[in-house]
Design a protein that fits this description.
- This protein has about 325 residues and is of the alpha/beta class.
- It folds into two domains: about 5-180, Rossmann fold; about 185-305, Cytochrome-c3 Hydrogenase, Chain A, domain 2.
- Helices cover about 25% and strands about 10% of the residues.
- The chain has ten helices and eleven strands.
- The chain has a three-stranded parallel beta sheet with strand order 1-5-9, with helices on both faces. A two-stranded antiparallel sheet has the order 2-6. A two-stranded antiparallel ribbon has the order 3-4.
- The longest helix has 13 residues, at about 275-290.
- The radius of gyration is 23 Å and the shape is elongated.
- The chain starts with 10 loop residues before the first helix and ends with a helix.
Length: about 325
């Protein structure tokens, strides 16, 4: 659903423009039943070239490693086996979304289905394909993590591969494309002025920074959500919901309510990236002491109640 929101141009136009042929997708292709099985068999046999195997959703290894919780309809074989065989002949293998990359929401809780990602289970390398897996081009799995993943992250990565413009150095330590993970969700956040003065929201719908009380992880999350918007104008933060760091392994089990910030002695446990605790305490104290009344009032309101001052009004010159 996220991928279909690609725009300027749309998904199909983007793929055609990059010379990418979509062999099959369960929601976007007309082929079904025996046609799909035949295509998969031809790919495995080397009769049809597979440049990029893209998997959406986690893989189910249960029960007891058999994968039989998820059978590919009409084949009697686990999806796990099909994916492993396809991965052996694919030039590149891509995990599209955090579930496919790290196991995601499906692996939360007791994980009775033994759900995992293609080459990770949470932070632990391995997954369905194993630590040593490399595609025929010599690449590990490319993890386009996100829940959902932004359509442009997917298209951009595919286009870079098609153009030969992606190198292993363009992936971060979790093998996510650095084109979006070299950024923080904090970058471009419309609430940054409130963050600078530690003018914090206290309840849903408040305009203030959501880091201190509302569970926001935007200062730690690797993604460009607030500079590369959904549908041209949206992001979680712009919609009034805190960033939950959905591009990271195990985001689905933070150990607390998503919309609450756990604290020790009043200090948020999750501090901004590279920020020492002592510095944060000192800077936060100074910032709060200097917070303009406008930001204090607006931070705990659902609309702007005090607009920025007009310089001429301050001088009494109207």
């Amino acid at each position: 659903m996220s991928l279909l929101c690609a725009e300027s141009p749309d998904l199909i136009t983007n793929l055609k423009g990059a010379g990418i042929e979509l062999l099959w997708h369960p929601s976007l292709s007309e082929a079904s039943c025996t046609e799909v099985v035949t295509l998969l068999q031809q790919i495995i046999a080397g009769e049809v070239r597979l440049d990029a195997l893209c998997l959406e959703g986690s893989l189910l290894q249960g029960p007891n490693g058999t994968g039989r919780f998820h059978i590919l309809a009409g084949t009697g074989r686990p999806m796990l086996e099909w994916v492993r065989e396809l991965a052996c002949v694919a030039r590149y293998t891509l995990a599209v979304g955090t579930c496919a990359a790290f196991g995601g929401i499906t692996s939360a809780g007791g994980n009775p289905s033994e759900a995992c990602g293609l080459q990770y289970t949470g932070h632990q390398p391995g997954g369905a394909l194993g630590v040593d897996y490399l595609s025929t081009a010599g690449w590990p799995v490319i993890n386009i993590a996100g829940c959902p993943t932004h359509p442009n992250w997917v298209i951009e990565t595919l286009m870079q591969l098609a153009l030969g413009d992606l190198t292993p150095g363009d992936l971060d330590y979790l093998r996510r494309p650095r084109s979006y993970t070299d950024h923080l969700v904090h970058h471009g956040c419309t609430r940054n002025e409130y963050y600078e003065f530690k003018a914090s929201a206290e309840k849903p719908s408040d305009l203030g920074c959501m880091m201190e009380n509302m569970g926001c992880l935007g200062t730690q999350a690797h993604a460009d959500c607030n500079t590369r918007l959904w549908n041209g104008e949206g992001s979680c933060l712009r919609g009034g919901y805190p960033c939950i760091n959905c591009t990271a392994p195990k985001f689905e089990e933070p150990g607390h309510v998503f919309s609450e910030t756990p604290k020790i002695a009043g200090i948020p446990m999750g501090l901004p990236t590279e920020m020492p605790k002592a510095w944060f305490v000192a800077l936060a104290s100074l910032a709060k002491a200097a917070t303009p009344k406008r930001l204090k009032d607006n931070a705990v309101a659902d609309h702007i109640v005090v607009p920025p001052a007009n310089p001429k009004e301050k001088e009494g010159d109207l």
